[in-house]
Write a structure and sequence with these properties.
Order of helices and strands: EHEHHEHEHHEEEHEHEHEHEEHHH
Oligomer: single chain
Number of helices: 13
CATH superfamily of the largest domain: Isopropylmalate Dehydrogenase
Strand content: 15-25%
Largest sheet: 10 strands, mixed
CATH class of the largest domain: Alpha Beta
CATH topology of the largest domain: Isopropylmalate Dehydrogenase
Structural class: alpha/beta
Number of strands: 12
Shape: globular
Strand order of the largest sheet: 2-1-3-12-11-4-5-10-8-9
Number of domains: 2
Helix content: 40-55%
Amino acid sequence: MKATIAVLPGDGIGTEVAAEAERLLQRIAERHGHTFTLTTGLIGGAAIDATGSPLPDETLALCQAADAVLLGAVGGPKWSDPNAPVRPEQGLLALRKALGVYANLRPVKPHPVAARHSPIKAEVLDGVDLMFVRELTGGSYFGEKRRDADSAFDGCLYTVAEIERVTRHAGKLARQRSGRLTHVDKANVLETSRLWRATVNRVMAEEFGDIEVEHVLVDAMAMHLLTRPSSYDVILTENLFGDILTDEASVLAGSMGLLASASLGDGAKGLYEPIHGSAPDIAGRGIANPYAMLLSVALLLRHSLGLDTEAAEVEQAVWQALDEGALTRDLVADGALSTREAGEAVIRRLPSVPASSAA
């Protein structure tokens, strides 16, 4: 296979984990006879410094021409003024909108070794295997915004079509998994949530009658995620709620450094990134956990390139590295691996012979 992958390291530890992702992609290509052309672009704070824009035209063109996009992280103290007219996160939001990637998939499945570092009791984590589906290009993040001396306004707008398309993504995933879908909203208060609930019910009844559907209010879900997370499988929600809940769910896995994400639209092209931020407190020290980025590579291989075998190899290599105690500083204080060592630990655990040539 020949594929072009746009790599946007971004800011902070984004550059460090992106380097490990590039090494992994090249190794996968070598092992399986693929040709991956990796093209690098600026985004976020680094792009602001270089061009004045958090998403330069050159970077957008690079992403639009690529088969998939891999992103590190954006932001940092240098650009953290919320009143600044140009901010790093604007680049990420604009990129999601431009690529039309409206369905954000965030899997959460605690690894037994890493789960020991979670503040949640072990018995609560038993059997947890979640797939969040977060609507990514609508809602209050993209709505009208106003502010004057005495007030501020953030509009939350959703159309039926926006809700329908992401619901179909979630329904297909639920059909592939346990046949259960949980929709999270605030329908007792918000009109947008009432539209969401009505639309989800209609789409699921008309197109996914075999799927069991339940609705949970977002405040209740915030509690249930930490007290009985194994009760859920596919969780569908709007942009703001999804952002908050998936960050909360990271404690189930033991660290944000273990959670990957895929942002998908109607075609094969996707945007892949770890859910963690730029972590400026540890940036430049070579101690960031690259596993979330490497698992994002697995999602890229599966969803955008259709390389299921290669994706499974990466996931198994990360799982085995954790099994054998290859842990970074976010998980263990003594004997922690550096970012480069953790990346190498995964590469070493890839199967020695490609599946296609195995006896």
